Amino acid sequence: MSALRICLCLNPVLLNRFLTQTNLLSSSCALSSSLKWTSKSLCCSSKSIVHSNGDTSTSLSRNCPLSGLEDELVGYRLGKKKATEVAHLVWRHVLHKGDIVIDATCGNGYDTLAMLKMVADESGSGRVYGMDIQIDALKNTSSLLDATVTQKEKELVKLFPICHSRMDEVVPENTAVRLVAFNLGYLPGGDKGIITTSKTTLLALEAAKKMLISGGLISLVVYVGHPGGSEELDTVEAFASRLSVDSWTCCKFQMLNRPLAPVLVFMFKR
Ligand SMILES: C[S@@+](CC[C@H](N)C(=O)[O-])C[C@H]1O[C@@H](n2cnc3c(N)ncnc32)[C@H](O)[C@@H]1O
Fold first, then answer.
1. Cα–chain center distance at 41
2. Is the dihedral of CA 218, 263, 46, 18 positive or negative?
3. Nearest CA-CA partner of 219 in 199, 205, 234
4. Ligand 1 pocket, 130 CB below 6 A?
5. pLDDT, tens digit, 9 for 90 and up, residues 34-77
6. Could you tell me if 198 and 232 are in contact, meaning their C-beta atoms sit under 8 angstroms apart?
7. Is 110's C-beta closer than 6 angstroms to any atom of ligand 1?
8. Which of 82, 128, 180, 260 fits as disulfide partner to 102, beta carbons 3.0 to 4.6 Å?
9. Which of 196, 219, 232 to mutate to test the pocket of ligand 1 (most atoms within 8 A of CB)?
10. Looking at the whole model, is its pTM more than 0.90?
11. Mind listing the domains of the chain with CATH numbers?
């Protein structure tokens, strides 16, 4: 039997669809994986989502920020999608062309690139503010952008060699930030001794919370396989758990029988 655990209250139609899909998949992939899905508040009222013209999508996604992502979440559960891929799909769900976003941990630039592709538009109003404490990481990010985007698109990215706890110093005041994304841990291919830490991650989350607009998202991929990783996850979870239910929907995705798999944490601002 699958060890999938769901601790949330969903739109009944959506929940039924998700469970049906999960049961079908579980029967063919029994015991392949398990996923813990917890939500402080992910509740929807089916009454509130149906418009007179029959269009349900807009208010459905406002009330249920993960609606429409069932396939991706099941894919993660089955080990078919990496945590970063799922994070990107969730960002795509939230972002629009012209949005302003923050990559709090640029690393090798793959997240920066994904964000840029989602927000870059002809008008040039989209922006990606990226930061990392390692110059080598910013160089890698810059090289990746050089190899993959146009000069005009690259100009929408602003890179800063600073700690993410200081993100409010580089993003202009009153900027409407739609996404702040963290990919915690160490730089792949770099010095494994240079890692994100609970203390500065918490400060950065506080800064992100203040900058985020309504409808925005704080997204984290948290690695727990290195020293300090589990403590950092505890810090992130404690932060998310303290956010007001009235203003935030917070959830995490964690593979219970793959204890070293990265954990996804999403904080949606209503
Ligand atoms: C897992 S990597 C990020 C991967 C990256 N997002 C990508 O797509 O390749 C984590 C990065 O966080 C950076 N980092 C560590 N502490 C930081 C801090 N306090 N502020 C900003 N970046 C930090 C590391 O230097 C490392 O490059």
1. 17
2. positive
3. 205
4. no
5. 444 444 333 332 323 333 333 333 444 556 777 877 777 777 76
6. yes
7. yes
8. 180
9. 196
10. no
11. 82-258 (3.40.50.150)
